[in-house]
Every structure is written in C-alpha cells, then in structure tokens.
C-alpha cells in the first residue's frame, strides 16, 4: 500500500511538473536570430573592455564594447536607414498588391527585401561583415493612394582590423562626436538609397579628426525619400592621448549602462 | 489485489485531468461542468465583495457602483425603468451568463435600413429603450472582415518574430457579446429600441407570459442581432456606420462618479475647461434627445434602461411574487436574426482551414513567400 501511495505521488509530481515544464518550454522565446554571431577568431580582441572619456569618467560599457569588440556584431554599432519605397518593389514577378487592409502587414513582412543590397554597400565601403538586424515598415506610413510606405532598416556590422594595432588603451581616452549633414535631392550621390548610404559612409569617414587614432564609425543613419533632401547622421569615436592630470585606473564597479 | 489498480487508475485520472486543465485552461471546465455549477464556482471565486452572493437585507442598490467609467453592476442586478437596479432573480427565472458555448439553431442575415428614420411606434404601444454596456458574455459567434484578418496576420508576425513559433497564437474574429433583455410589460405591445455602441452585440430576449413585441429597432454596434424573438416581429437596424452617415451621435450626460467630474471637483482641471467640456457634452446629449424624440416619441436621456457595465435590462415592472417572471431563453437552439460582416463563423462549426486562425496563417504564409521561417529577423548578439 505504501509503495502504491509513493508511486502515485511520484507519478502525480512527474505529470504536474512535466506539464508545467512543457508550458514553460512552449512560452520560451526561441532563437529568433536568422544570422548567427559571426565571431571572427582572426580579429584582434583588446585586453580590456573599458575606456575612459575625455572628462575622466568611464565610457558606458555598451559604447566601449561597440568600439572595441570588432570580432563580433554589437547592437550599439549599427546603420539605420529610414527610407520611402514603392510597395510594388516588394512583389515578385506576376504578383499583384493585395487589398488595402493588407498593405501594412505585407510591407512589414517583406521589408527585408529592401535591405538586400544595403549590406553590400557597407562591406564595399566600410565593414568586414554586415547583417540585417531588423527591417520593418513604419506603422501608419502606408499611403494606399501613392502606393508607398516608409521603412526602417537596421544593419549591424563589424569593422576590419586597422593596419596599426590599437595603442595602449589605459593611456588613451575615447572621444566621440556626432555629425549631421544634408544632401540636395536629385544629385547623383542621392539618386538611390544605396548611393546615399555610400555617400554617408564617405562623409562620415571624412569627418574623422586627423589626429584621432583608430577613428571608427559607431552609428550611421540615413533618411531617404525620392526627390527630397537626404539627411545623414553619424557618430564617430576615436582614441586620443590622456589629457594632462588624468590618471587611468581600472573600474572598481560596472560602468554606467554596462 | 483490486484496490491497487483502482488507486493507480484514480491517480492517473487525476494526473491527466491536471495536465488537461493546465493546457486548456478554464475553458475545459465550461465544457464539462453544467452552467449552474459554474455560476456557483464563479460566485465563490470572487476575490472581493463585488459579486458576492445576495444575503437577507441586501438591497439591489448595494450592488450598483457609480464609478469612474459609469454605472457598474457588481452583483446579480438588472437595470429597470429610471435606471434603478432590481435583482435579476426577481424578474427572470433560470438566469445564467454561461452562454459562451451556445449554438443557435437558425441564423438569418438581416441588413441595415435605408435612411435615418426607423418606422415609428404605433399609438398606444409602450416604448422600451435599453442601452447595453459591457456584459462580458462573449458568444461562440463571430464576424469579421479583411481589416480584422490583417490585424491577426500582424499579430502572428509579431509573435513569430518574438518566439519563433505560432504555437501560442490565439487569434479570433470579434465575437458577438450577449446582452439580456427581459420584457415584463404586459399591459400594451412593446416597441423595443435596443441601443449599443462599439462592438458586435447580440440581444437576447426573455419574455414574461403575456408580453407582446410590436417591433424591434437595433441601434449602434459594429454588427448586431437579436435572439429569441418571434420571427413575425419586424426588426430594423441602424449600425454605428449608419448612425455616423446620418450624423447621429448617441450621447448622454456624465454620471456623478465619472472621473472627469471627480477631477473637476478637486480642481485638477481649470474651471473654464470644465464648463466648456460639460457644455459640449450637454449639447450632444440634447441633439441626440431631439432625434430620439422625433423618431420614437421619448427622450433618450430620460428613458434609457441599462448600466455601463451589466448583463440585464428589464422593460416593464418587477413582477409581484404571485405573478410569473420572464423565463430565461438560452441562445443555444434559438432563432437569431443578425447583421454580419464579410465572414461569419460559429466556433467549432467551421470547416477545417476556413476559420479565422487558419485564414490568418494562410495569408501570412503567402506574404512570407510560402514559409513562415522568412518572418524571422534579428542578429543573435
């Protein structure tokens, strides 16, 4: 009798916990990334993961890692393209646009199609590797009369190693700056979104200070609409020697944002 | 020798029931237990004194809350003339709110009337004006259009991008929400004006012996229908879309407990803004009163019977103890007349691949070039 009781108890526990475990498993987020972390073993990995800002404080860890770890993608190192596109660009040959209520969700599902050529621009001009992190339609941006919508495309990338290795990180500070510029519509360099991105990359690199060491493009954004001024923005980061009077010390606790 | 296997069988049955409950949730209980038992369980499970069972000495007024969102029935009460609460048990026998699995026997599709004026009531008839708030009684009937399907596809896309699976996808078209109307008026034919807002509404009619219905006008709602009405009684419908195109905006003054009035009392809103907004609300209510009086001979604001949250309205007096009450008529097996959107379905009665969820998946698949895997996005940092 005792065995039976124990057996029933164990069975109930197994069934109960098993069901709960199954439920937990069902609600677990699956690996949603369609792009595996590239992790390039050939890329140099710096010996420290913190940096000092010109004011003597610690650079937020996410920003420091986005600058330092070029062996892998980092969410804080990205190129964001906000572009207007015609919805028929999302169709395959012979396909027709669905009824108006479905345009928004069709655009959202097929938005990655618009990012297909953008990674090539990045790898041709700046990056060692690039991937589309997200491609979505901007909610409420579908214009059924014009047949257009606005899309937000986010690419992540990693940079190739510079010819010179990084200097002593403990003896340098990380300087950063943001730069914004506008290009007139109709020019050759803004005719397509790919051309605009290419121009943005060139402009961003040109904005690097001459004396800055290992100047890197941390983020880049392009707002492109046909026949409208193109707005480009970039955030650059580079190393500079420690200012006089600043003494480097490793952090005793996590950096802000780390 | 026999007790061992019997105990094991009981243990296994309890285990399987636990698994089924965990996986299916409370819907399983609704499928197994009778409605009366579920009603009792629902009352026992109430966490606070809202919805507590009636005890001797309670008045119906004790179950009516003048809240921030309007008048709310928090117990077994119905709205009656002058919007005064009465106990449901005093007007309807056999009442239940368990209708989520009810399947009608016959469904007839009706359409909105042309124009903005329903047929007026005949001289000598009583006009009963019922307004329905949220009842929480969702039926197995739903109706939807391409916009609902597109929203379902977007829900699927978001879920798939978040979890990589559609296993937990729970989408359905907007259900009809039931609202019960008891008619205890027997002195004259009753012309019913049943008014709702926003969602799909299914009016369920319960007549006391001797009650006669002259005509029913369904006002408002995305879609609307009526159950348990004699098929010879005419029904006229003006939905939200029809009211809008007629320039008619149902409007009423605020209840004393409305959040806006409370905020105004505390001085949180400038006096000028309070006065301006109250004047605007008053103007709208007055305009609606005029249209209502011209159409039905009574004012909407003074004739409405219905709380902002509740399940039953009563047209007519509360029957005396010796008089018969209205008897509850279930939607299950009833005859229904209703307006419908492009697609209509009864849960569990739809051919495979033709329900809302299957349509959503099929559309998502076709947009994703035949494979939902194409929905995946994101880099694994």
Rounded Rg of chain A: 25 Å
Q: CA-to-CA gap between the ends of chain B?
A: 61 Å
In DSSP terms, counting alpha (H) and pi (I) runs of 4 or more, how many helices of chain A? 5
Low-confidence stretches of chain B: 43-50
What string, H for helix and E for strand, traces the elements of chain B in order?
HHHEEEEEEEEHEEEEEEHHHHEEEEEH
Number of helical segments with 4 or more residues of chain B: 9
What does this protein look like?
The complex is a heterodimer of chains A (258) and B (381). With 258 residues, chain A is an alpha+beta fold. Chain A has one domain. Chain A has helices at residues 2-27, 61-68, 103-110, 118-125, 193-206, and strands at 78-86, 129-137, 148-158, 172-183, 213-224, 230-241. In chain A, strands 2-3-1-5-6-4 form a 6-stranded mixed beta sheet. In chain A, helix 4 (118-125) runs parallel beside helix 5 (193-206). Chain A is flat, with a radius of gyration of 25 Å. Chain B is an alpha/beta fold and 381 residues long. Chain B has helices at residues 3-24, 27-32, 35-44, 146-163, 240-245, 259-266, 271-296, 300-303, 356-367; strands spanning 64-67, 70-73, 77-80, 84-87, 92-93, 106-109, 126-131, 138-144, 175-183, 190-195, 201-207, 213-219, 224-227, 235-238, 304-305, 312-315, 326-327, 335-338, 343-346. In chain B, strands 6, 8, 9, 11, 13, 16, 18 and 19 form an 8-stranded mixed beta sheet that branches. In chain B, strands 14-12-10-7-15 form a 5-stranded parallel beta sheet. A two-stranded antiparallel ribbon of chain B has the order 1-2. In chain B, a hairpin with a 2-residue loop joins strand 1 (64-67) and strand 2. Chain B is globular, with a radius of gyration of 24 Å. Chain B starts with a helix and ends in a 14-residue tail after the last helix. Classes of the chains: A alpha+beta (258), B alpha/beta (381). The A-B interface holds A 4, 7-8, 11-12, 15-16, 18-20, 22-23, 26-37, 72-75, 92, 98-99, 101-102, 104-106, 108-110, 112, 131-135, 156 and B 4, 7-8, 11-12, 14-16, 18-19, 22-23, 145-147, 149-150, 153-154, 157, 161-165, 167-168, 363-364, 367-369, 374-381.
